[in-house]
Amino acid sequence: MARDSKKSKGGDKKAERAPSKPQKPAAPLPSPSVLSRHEGSMVERSSRGFSYGEVQGSGMAVVTARNWGVPLDTRRRSVLEGNVHALKGWYSKSKGASEAKKVEAELVKIGREAEGEVRKGVAKARKEAVRAEKEVEKLEKEAVEKVEAPIKKRRAKKAAKDSEEASSQEQAKDE
């Protein structure tokens, strides 16, 4: 008898620690449909089950759908909006769906905040890049001036010398 009481205590602790999982909705499961070709036109008929894309599009995990007995057609690849909306409506009636939506909303909020921070960082980096570009241009200009300064001096000396020679030659001609 002592063992039974210990087992029940251990089981209670596990139940307290276990996260709450979405519970299967009590509403009847929607019936899946598929489009098929018939005499040159498309006809909607009932299908074997929902495709994986339809289950994921409804916001439900495929594992959860299997556990809840949702019929799955592994061969189908099409995603019909009617099936997605029907599953979404059915899944939203579960208790865990509202919690999942809250978590998703929180993740979206965090993502938007992070995106804002990234944009601020990008703007700051752009300003820094423009500032650095101007600094590089300034340094390049200074380097060119340092290289051209002696050349300009030589040219000025040569021009002065040429003008002196030209004036001395004119004076020699005049005499």
Characterization of the model:
The chain has 175 residues and is mostly helical. The protein has a domain of 74 residues. The chain contains 5 helices and 2 strands, in the order H-E-E-H-H-H-H. The chain has a two-stranded antiparallel sheet. A hairpin with a 2-residue loop joins strand 1 and strand 2. The radius of gyration is 41 Å and the shape is rod-shaped. The termini are far apart. The mean pLDDT is 82.
> What count of helical segments does DSSP give?
5
Low-confidence stretches: none
**Shape field:** rod-shaped
Number of strands: 2
- Determine the fraction of residues in helical runs and give it as a percent range: 55-70%
Report the mean per-residue pLDDT as an integer: 82
Strand order of the largest sheet: 1-2
Biggest sheet statistics: 2 strands, antiparallel
Strand content: 5-15%
What is the subunit organization of this protein? single chain
Task: Please compute the radius of gyration using only Cα atoms.
Answer: 41 Å
Distance between the termini: 143 Å
Order of helices and strands: HEEHHHH
Question: Could you say which structural class the secondary elements and strand pairing correspond to?
Answer: mainly alpha
